[in-house]
Amino acid sequence: MIHTWIAHFSALLPQYDALWPTLTPDERERAARFVDPAVGRRFAVGRGFLRRRLADLLDITPEAVQFAYGERGKPHLHAAHRSDWRFNLSHADDVLLLAGCIGHEIGADVERVRPMDNMPTVARISFSEAERRALFALPPDDQLTAFYTCWTRKEAYIKAVGDGFALPLHDFSVTLRRDEAPRLLSAVGDDVTRWTLYHVEPADGYIAAVCVANTPDTSRPTPKNENMRGGWQP
Predict the structure, then answer these.
(1) Rounded distance, CA 139 to CA 62, Å?
(2) Where a domain ends, among 102, 118, 141?
(3) Cis amide prior to 168 (ω within 30 degrees)
(4) Domain range holding 77?
(5) What is the pTM (predicted TM-score) of this model?
């Protein structure tokens, strides 16, 4: 089963004093290295939020959560926990999205939908030919939402792959139209049937996606926060 949590920086920042002690010395040093103190505080409360949620799953204190990192920096639970929970955290502006499941790789991405003057240029550089055709065939008023739908699904996929950050964005294709189910259409060197994509709108003005390696349990992700809006598809 896929678990998801939605949080907001506007709600977490007032908890800074309570979350700060849950961080390791290395995490505190990282937070202090940000040139903008506000960015450091956001990092600190975001990591504290992650620690609290993982601690709940492991039935330990947030301070006891240990991380290890993949070749390209993707965090996972340290082997010392003897746990097969996999997770991925994404944030954009005020919204944080955490997705997790047991035993299957998972990736998540959330973006705030905002006008982009260079949207066509970014799409031509980053999207596959099939995605560009689908995007630019839409009415102009629908293209911005479709762009972010495509972008979040692509980001969720490369995060689920783990080392996917080295994967050229134009080497795989996803669906982006409202009348199409979220799906990985093609991927160089990968079997698209290994992955399931989900679309979610966690708050007004935001679009998100979760990608997970296929599991015997095909139930939809269930949000774990009352701030959840919209719904998972499908």
Answers:
(1) 48
(2) 102
(3) no
(4) 3-102
(5) 0.90
Q: How many domains does the chain have?
A: 2
Q: Are 44 and 91 in contact (CB under 8 A)?
A: no
d(CA 161, CA 154): 11
For 72, list phi and psi in degrees, rounded to 5.
Answer: -110, 20
Q: 124 and 92, same structural domain?
A: no
Q: Which of 66, 3, 22 is nearest to 212 (CA)?
A: 3
* Amino acid occupying residue 70: G
CATH number of the domain residue 171 falls in: 3.90.470.20
Q: What is the pLDDT of residues 48-101, one digit of tens each?
A: 999 999 999 999 999 999 999 887 778 899 999 999 999 999 999 999 999 999
Q: In whole angstroms, how far apart are CA 151 and each of 116, 135, 166, 212, 226?
A: 13, 11, 16, 16, 26
Clarify whether residues 94 and 116 are in a common domain.
no
Answer yes or no: do 83 and 95 share one domain.
yes
β-pair type (75-77, 172-174): unpaired
